[in-house]
Amino acid sequence: MSNDEEKQEKRGFKVEDRRRFSESGETRAEAADSHQTGGSATGAAPAAADTAPPRSVEPPPMDLNFSTFVISLSTQALAHLGEIEDPIDRRRTIDLSAAKQLIDILGILKDKTKGNLDTLEAGLLDKMLYDLRLCYVERVRSRPDKA
Q1: Which of 107, 112, 125, 142 is deepest in the core (most CB within 10 A)?
Q2: Which candidate, 30, 55, 26, places its Cα nearest to that of 43?
Q3: 57 falls within a domain
Q4: Is residue 2 part of a domain?
C-alpha cells in the first residue's frame, strides 16, 4: 500500500446504521438486542436510565389521507346528530345546523373530487354521505318542535 493510500484510509470514516427497523419495516437483530438490554449494541446501559421517569407509550399518529379526512368529518357530523357522544364533554347533543353543514361539506368534496378518487375512496365517501343524509332526515322528521 502506498503512503497516499494509507493517509486516505486513516482520514476515512465509518458509517454505522443504528436504525431499529429495516427498509421492509422489520426489526433489525442488533436493534432488538440493544432494546432488550436497554443500552447500545455493545450492551452498555445508558447513564441516566435509572433516574429517568418511565415514558408513556402513545400510539403512533394516524396516517393522514383522504379517507381519514372523510372519516373525521363524518365522525363530527355523527356527534352533531347525537349518534355518538361528543369526545370532549362525553354528552350526546343534537345540533342539526352543524350536522347539515358538515354533510354539505362532504357533498362538496364529492363533487369537487369526482373522477380523482380511487374506487375505495369514492365508495367510502358515497356510503358516508348516504348514511349521514339518512340520519339527518330521520332527526329532522322526529323533531317535536317542527311546525
Answers
A1: 125
A2: 30
A3: no
A4: no
pTM for this prediction: 0.56
Domain membership flag for residue 28: no
Picking from 3, 6, 33, 7, the residue whose alpha carbon sits closest to that of residue 18 is: 33
* 107-130 residue pLDDT tens: 999 999 999 999 999 999 999 999
CA 27 – CA 61 distance, rounded (Å):
20
Tens of pLDDT, residues 54-77: 666 777 777 889 999 999 999 999
- Residue 40 included in any domain: no
Question: Quick one: how far is CA 4 from the chain centroid?
Answer: 53
- Which structural domain, as residue segments, surrounds residue 133? 66-141
Which DSSP string do the residues of 22-49 spell out, in sequence order?
Answer: -TTSPBPHHHHHHHHHTS-TT-PPPTTT
The three grid cell numbers given for residue 123, joined into one nine-digit string: 365508495
